[in-house]
Amino acid sequence: MILLTGASGRLGAVLARDLAVSGFALRLTDLKPYPGALPPGAEFEAADLADADAFVRMAEGCRAILHFGGIPNDNPGFAKIAAANVTGMHTIYEAARLSGARVIFASSNHTVGFHERAQRLSITEPTRPDGFYGLSKVYGEQMGRLYWDKHGVESVNIRIGSCCPEPTDARMLSTWLSPADLARLCAAAISVPRTGWALVWGASANPATFWGEDDRALIGWQPHDSAERWRDALAGKTNGDPVAERFQGGVFAARGYSQKSSETAP
Ligand code: NAI
Ligand code: 15L
Fold it and tell me: How confident is the chain (266 residues) per 10-residue block, as mean pLDDT?
């Protein structure tokens, strides 16, 4: 059995459908009702990440928790991000510790959003979050590190780029992750015998990528898709904001930016 949080969201609903087709038995959960008919063999229970007991119960008998629930941007502000994405990680990791499940965590490229676009990052580069949302994802990755070192809870932390049916602007020529590549990555992350604490860039095989070395060989995953066939249509579709265009995080980095000097410290 696999527990999938955020099952009613954009990525959760895609994963629920694709993983059910691949034969995984799914326990789905979200604050919101599941949109439409449940995939074959799946069950659904509504729960808030604030309800730690509900997650301990739902994780019982699960070999993996795919954690895709939470706030996916900076819009609601610090307090709400902290409740869902920081306290919520404690809910998930305590449930994983008690059930013995592996966590597969939807982290984000916004953990490193203040790196310049010209850089090609490996996972050993320092994090440079571009907002409280990105910072909450750094916390989530490090919560996994703590639970691995202290309790032996395994996790695969996926720094997702931009996961949507097609890339829609020039930045996504670098950051796009096809939903099919995401589903294959999650299936591999569930199935591989050992992961320890692993960190993977969640992007398709985009030649314009910002990201390099990671733990994908450990997971046994390679992306199949690429944003490159949209290059002619999207190369000129830039944001116009110099801060958004300079940094990997794009508009997330530019939101509320008030650095006065022309150079951000290296
Ligand atoms: P979404 O907003 O469509 O889905 C998130 C789901 O989490 C929603 O259905 C929401 O009801 C649920 N949720 C929010 N707060 C909750 C709480 N307190 N308790 C229980 N459920 C709660 O977002 P999306 O795009 O599907 O993203 C899923 C995950 O992937 C998020 O964690 C996001 O940060 C991450 N991610 C997504 C990327 C993308 O390109 N879509 C890129 C990078 C990371
Ligand atoms: C994210 O982390 C967001 O959840 C998603 O909505 C996209 O904006 C994505 O990053 C991105 O950077 O394109």
Answer: 98 98 98 96 97 98 98 98 98 98 99 98 98 98 98 99 98 98 98 98 98 98 98 96 97 95 57
pLDDT of residue 120: 97
Alpha carbon separation from 152 to 71, 82, 137, 194, 198 (Å, rounded) = 27, 25, 20, 11, 13
Pocket test for ligand 1, best of 3, 157, 160 (most atoms within 8 A of CB): 160
Helix (H) or strand (E) holding 143, with range, is helix 132-151
Q: What pLDDT was estimated at residue 265? A: 53
Domain containing 75: what range? 2-260
Q: Which atom of ligand 2 is nearest to the CA of 108?
A: 2
Indicate which atom in ligand 2 lies nearest the CA of residue 250: 12
Structural domain includes residue 99: yes
> Do the domain assignments include residue 157?
yes
| Domains: count for the chain | 1
Q: Specify the pLDDT at position 260.
A: 84
| 188 contact partners, CB below 8 Å, separation of at least 6 | 219, 220, 221
In a domain, 22, yes or no: yes
Overall pTM surpassing 0.85 (yes/no)? yes
CATH at 144? 3.40.50.720
Ligand 2 centroid to residue 70 C-alpha, Å: 13
Q: Residue 266: inside a domain, yes or no?
A: no
How many angstroms separate the alpha carbon of residue 47 from the centre of ligand 1?
Answer: 14
Q: Which of 170, 85, 171, 167 is nearest to 134 (CA)?
A: 85
